[in-house]
Specification:
The chain is an alpha/beta fold. The chain contains 19 helices and five strands.
Length: 370
Amino acid sequence: MYKVIVADDEPFMLEGWRTMIDWQACGYELCGTATDGEEALALFNAVEPDLVVTDIQMPVMDGLGLIHTLREDLAYTSKIVIVTGYSDFNYAKQAIRYQVDQYVLKPLVPEEIHQILTEMIEPLDKRREELKQQDGIKFTDDVHIDHLNEQRISEEYDLEQMMNIAKDILVLIEAGDTDPIDNAVSELMLMTENAEVSLEWIHHVIRYIHGELLRKYGKREVCREILCEKEWHETASWSLGTLQELCVRISEQLSQPDLKKLGTGRLVAEAVHELQQHYRSKIKLQDVANRIHVNSAYLGQQFKREMGVSFSDYVHQLRIAEARKLLRRTNMKITDIAFKLGYHDAEYFTQKFRAHTGELPSVYKNKNQG
């Protein structure tokens, strides 16, 4: 049995970890729970667990503070799982830097947790064997220092570049822009083939991409089927094109005009069809509600529940996806593109473009033309 501790400040979440997860069946023993980072550290020292599961948002010491202490100060080399209900780009970079192994999205889905726990048994077994080969010698101060130095060397890698590529891949997938997906994924994989970064870091970045797609589109039946395929975790096959294929397939599903295939309701499907036809004009929620004869407040609520984003955010997604195509394929001025897509001025368009892609339209155009 591998020992586990869980840290979360929400009582119902802790109760879920205790009662909904069959730890023993997966080969683990839940040795204790904590409600903040400092309490988790005390429990960690007492239990010396093989796996730490922690929420991000906690009082006293948050999850990232706990992970930083475990990795940097205590040289903890075993498995860490993050539990989160939100997405943040900077938080993701920190999590990858600290070599977090998995991202679990709230609310808990026992089947998903059981799958993750099962997948981690093999690397935990390997780590246990490596520790046995040390003939019982504990880490000395010198070894601890060497580990910290290795961490600092890892941080010299261009994590910013890796995460920017990850953002590009997510934007391409969400825009249904399948042509450049192969190139973006290949660029990411080449970083490890060229010895720019370790393969382990690439694993963490792919887990981030996979987690973001699950968070946004995991409720759509067909998308979820693709996202739950085992190939997402078969790292040896990624460089052979498997990863590109998975990203293209999920992108194709997101760009399907018949949203009933994606598990969305008829009402939202009608609303999305209206938006796909009229997003270039100054369209409002009330306009669409009137066209499909439904209350605007109700439509807004259903739209957010089914699509995972608000009505206005979805409009911006459609517009920015079209803007990316126009910037790549035409010589139109940025001002003209802004007005063509329904923005009242180029500055507002630039703000939205940067918010969705992480770069200015002019920069994107220069990178992707010629």
